[in-house]
Amino acid sequence: MASSLLLSTTTSFTSNHHSSPPLSTHPSNSISVRLNPNQTHRFQKCLLFHHFNSSRTIPFLLSSRRGFDVVRTSIRDADAETEQDSSLVGEDSAAFELGQQKLSSWVYFSVILGTVLFVLNVAWIDDSTGFGKAFVDAVSGVSDSHEVVMLILILIFACVHSGLASLRDSGEKLIGERAYRVLFAGISLPLALSTIVYFINHRYDGVQLWQLQSAPGVHELVWISNFISFFFLYPSTFNLLEVAAVDKPKLHLWETGIIRITRHPQMVGQVMWCLAHTIWIGNSVAIAASIGLIAHHLFGVWNGDRRLALRYGEDFELVKGRTSVVPFAAIIDGRQKLPKDFYKEFIRVPYLAITAMTLGAYFAHPLMQAASFRLHW
Questions:
Q1: How far is CA 169 from CA 29, 40, 180, 340, in A?
Q2: pTM above 0.70?
Q3: Which of 84, 90, 179, 297 falls 20 to 30 Å from 188 in CA-CA distance?
């Protein structure tokens, strides 16, 4: 089998056959030399090159009694191919091909979602059969301070959520990926619901520290910040079928889309959400909730990087080297090279779904508040 050598930059080519004229390439070309096995050793011993800084020309003296197959290719094409091949080691986030979707998978997703909501209602939400009220009452009995109770609820959720995430590798080996995802969601979801409902019901019960709701521009600022935060908060919508364990769940190493802006979009989104709500509500309960949630997600930055490093090793280090925790930092310092059509990484179905859900959640605020109040948590 022939081996090949690509000589890129401006080149000249000289053979020891005096009958063969020198071969020069155009400055924008490169030479690919294909060698037979019996030529390779002789070629390596007889190849001399020298680099001229002024002309960037490399003359080559090739000594052989046999000819070489020479193929011209564009340097730009070769460089582009190399850059494309080595540009991504992670996954293309939010990729969604309608033709690759199976109707049966989304039917299963709908059935599973309905089943989860039914079980959640019976086992946790319904006061006559569920444990949700008893759980919140038990935590509320620790202190009369809504701020303290808020922090305890967040702490419980954070310990369970991050703890189960940290044990994911061992758990999946023990019971399988799908079973562990069901266990993870089955424990985390009720705790998250209790924390959210308690916050909604007691968000105005703290000490009022400022009142900016009527200040010009504050409503617009808070609304826009909340809207943008959801694009950071929910990268899991990229793989809904895995969230519901219809597809086998994976620990993904995303690298495109929102990940180019920040490697930890959920942390950034949570900070934006907390700051917006704290500015709007302006009391001690909002501050307590923000402190707890932000602390949890800052821990998630370290824990998430640790888990990805263990799973992906060198690939994660490459992604880490060209991304940043602080939004836009890697772009500003040149470590992240945005493609010319970067905006296309956001014109995808998952991001459109996030837009629809975010707008829906905004208009559904009265319904969410009424439903939470009826729980009396």
A1: 49, 47, 10, 37
A2: yes
A3: 90
